[in-house]
From TrEMBL, chain A:
Alphabetized PANTHER family for the sequence: PROTEIN NRFD (PTHR34856)
Record keyword rRNA-binding present: no
Organism: Candidatus Desantisbacteria bacterium CG2_30_40_21
Family, as annotated: Belongs to the NrfD family.
Name of this chain's protein: Polysulfide reductase
UniProtKB/TrEMBL annotation, chain B:
Keyword set, alphabetical order: 4Fe-4S, Iron, Iron-sulfur, Metal-binding
One GO MF term attached to the UniProt entry: 4 iron, 4 sulfur cluster binding
Protein name, UniProt field: 4Fe-4S ferredoxin
Organism (species): Candidatus Desantisbacteria bacterium CG23_combo_of_CG06-09_8_20_14_all_40_23
Organism placement in taxonomy: Bacteria, Candidatus Desantisiibacteriota
Residue stretches making up the 4Fe-4S ferredoxin-type domain: 44-73, 111-142, 143-172
Positions of transmembrane segments: none
Amino acid sequence: MHEIIGAGYCYPNELHHYWSILIVLYPYITGLIAGAFIISSFYHVFGMKELQPIARFSLISALGFTFCVGLPLLFHLGHPERALNMLFTPHLTSAMAGFGIIYASYGVLLCLEVWLIFRPEIVRYANQTKGVIKLFYSTCLRSYP
Amino acid sequence: MKKLSRREFIRDSGIALAGGGLALFIAPSIVSSATKYDWTKHEYGYTIEIDRCIGCGMCAKACKAENSVPDTFYRTWVERYSYLKNGEVVVDSPKGAMDGFGSNFKADELDKAFFVPKMCNHCRNPRCVQVCPVGASYITKEGVVLVDKKHCVGCAYCVQACPYGARYIHPKLSTADKCTWCYHRITKGMLPACVLACPRKARKFGDIRDTSSEVYNLVKIHRVQELKPELKTNPRVSYIGLDKEVR
């Protein structure tokens, strides 16, 4: 009975490795986002008072990491200038395109939650600041300076 | 010589101009109807006879030359399966068999050995097409799996997904690249470069809808196998004489 021994052979094209540290960074940052969001939700959704001091900080951390989670993937691409093709012409059987849509939706959800949670601060800054910063916070309040 | 009257000159000139114009109008349409390629009228298949392959590597060389495949990347390659008397099977493919194979074992160590040409299987259910996030990998009407290099983002997801190791990222173009069955040739009625270069006619290419084609008849007459049938990719490349150790 003959048997192929060991793992000494791989296809000639597979001697090249394309998915490396940048691909690993992507789920790592995703994990940070998910963890931060869960900690925030423990207070805001489930009412765990012990986590109140870090609930708002963890929410804003989740938002910050969401904006940069795509960067390792972007640097990994052979054509980063075409990255938005994943959103403009998504191929829905692809997990990568699916996650593009999920992440975009998640980003919108986080923005909405930050907008609601930080509303007192937005009102305060809209009243106390001047210039471009005031314009930004006033726009967040759907009013004009 | 008869002198033409003004009336005759205008009449003859008109006839000549009308005739010339008609010829210019009709000729291109005759030529284009003769050479026009309709991709809905073909369905291609590829058959490899293992027993015929001598591992010369001419197919890999021809492919490199025809498609300007960069060094250390392969659209097609040949593997050697060496069955030893101690029960081991050793597989190798030095430089994709571009320079053929040297001897690796003594004759008294070997039980048997054979060569297996490999390439993109142009699957009917291709994983590379499934995973492409932007739809740059697609199947043509004739069943050829191609990459739109102007749309590919170069994420290498398809390279990871292909179970046959047939894809790579082109180092200069930074997009996915693979065997196209020499699409630029087959749409002009020519054979792929590897089929043309094979001195033993181990590689056969043709239209499987055409009942007179060699590929159609080989598949009809012989018991054929495909690579990794358990993955249900349903390849268009069929092998005659494939051993179970080949993967």
